[in-house]
């Protein structure tokens, strides 16, 4: 089951806030006149309302934490990484409705973004922006071309990588230079190329891919990401848990994401 934590938090703030207001305007005076003890539900409301409101405002307008659930962005982000997502860099949106109120920047090629998955917006996905509106994208023989320019790749190393379900596969690690942004990708020689030619990114849309190119469900399979679905930009790894070894990956803490 997919829980909408944002909506649950919103209702918690509203309900606790209403209880506090009712107590402030009506109940507290009567209670003080009769020297009655504060009911436990009102006590809880006064205790939790400031905390809930602060958390709600922080995650709605500033930063929101997310957990990486899969290896689709390896080697950049690992399964079990906990990241912070900048909510204001791409504009200020209302919580719950996600209506953009103030426009600032737009996603750039190379940004790693969290977005509501177009086929089912109740799920959040994270991928790298490859194409912005108007771009012509091709992907042939595991090599990316943007607006007629082949994106350079340099071999780094080969090694065995373990997927989240425990399956091992031979990964070819490469450094890709996406218009000046150097980042590492994985390819799998044993997987089909999934070639496509000259896809044009529509207005207000983005083409996204995972850095684990042959093990990522992305725009190649389900289409473009509308601007209205963008949640924010991934900026920092604040915690990382290796479930296979059941320990913290201390060397990843505080790592900037690019």
List the helices and strands and how they pair.
Blueprint: H1 5-34, H2 40-61, E1 63-67, E2 81-86, E3 92-93, E4 100-102, E5 112-116, E6 124-131, E7 136-140, E8 143-146, E9 149-150, E10 153-162, E11 168-178, E12 181-187, E13 196-200, E14 205-209, H3 219-222, E15 225-226, E16 230-242, E17 247-248, E18 255-256
Antiparallel strand pairs: 1-2, 2-16, 3-4, 5-6, 5-16, 6-14, 7-8, 7-13, 8-9, 10-11, 11-12, 14-15, 16-17, 16-18
Helix pairs in contact: 1-2
Short description:
The protein has 258 residues and is an alpha+beta fold.
Q: In words, what does this structure look like?
A:
- The chain has 258 residues and is α+β, with helices and mostly antiparallel strands.
- It has two domains: 5-61, no CATH class; 63-256, Umud Fragment, subunit A, CATH 2.10.109.10.
- The chain has helices at residues 5-34, 40-61, 219-222; strands at residues 63-67, 81-86, 92-93, 100-102, 112-116, 124-131, 136-140, 143-146, 149-150, 153-162, 168-178, 181-187, 196-200, 205-209, 225-226, 230-242, 247-248, 255-256.
- The strands form four sheets. Strands 1, 2, 5, 6, 14, 15, 16, 17 and 18 form a nine-stranded antiparallel β-sheet that branches.
- The longest helix has 30 residues, at 5-34.
- The chain is elongated and about 80 Å long.
């Amino acid at each position: 089951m997919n829980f909408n934590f944002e909506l649950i938090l919103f209702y918690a703030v509203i309900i606790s806030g209403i209880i506090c207001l009712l107590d402030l305007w009506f109940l507290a005076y009567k209670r003080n006149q009769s020297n009655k003890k504060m009911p436990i539900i009102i006590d809880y409301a006064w205790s939790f309302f400031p905390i809930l409101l602060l958390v709600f405002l922080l995650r709605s307008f500033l930063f929101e934490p997310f957990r990486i659930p899969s290896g689709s962005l390896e080697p950049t982000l690992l399964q079990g990484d906990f990241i912070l997502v900048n909510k204001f860099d791409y504009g200020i949106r209302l919580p719950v409705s996600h209506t953009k109120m103030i426009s600032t920047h737009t996603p750039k090629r190379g940004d790693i973004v969290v977005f509501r998955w177009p086929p089912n917006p109740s799920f959040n996905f994270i991928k790298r922006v490859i194409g912005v509106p108007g771009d012509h994208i091709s992907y042939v023989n595991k090599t990316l071309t943007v607006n007629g320019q082949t994106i350079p790749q340099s071999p780094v190393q080969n090694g065995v990588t373990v997927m989240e379900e425990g399956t091992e596969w031979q990964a070819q690690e490469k450094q890709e230079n996406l218009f000046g942004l150097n980042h590492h990708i994985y390819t799998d020689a044993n997987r089909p190329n999934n070639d496509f030619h000259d896809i044009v990114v529509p207005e207000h849309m983005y083409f996204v891919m995972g850095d684990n190119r042959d093990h990522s469900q992305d725009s190649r399979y389900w289409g473009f990401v509308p601007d209205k679905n963008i949640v924010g930009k991934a900026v920092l790894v604040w915690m990382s848990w290796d479930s296979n070894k059941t320990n913290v990956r201390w060397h990843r803490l505080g790592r900037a994401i690019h």
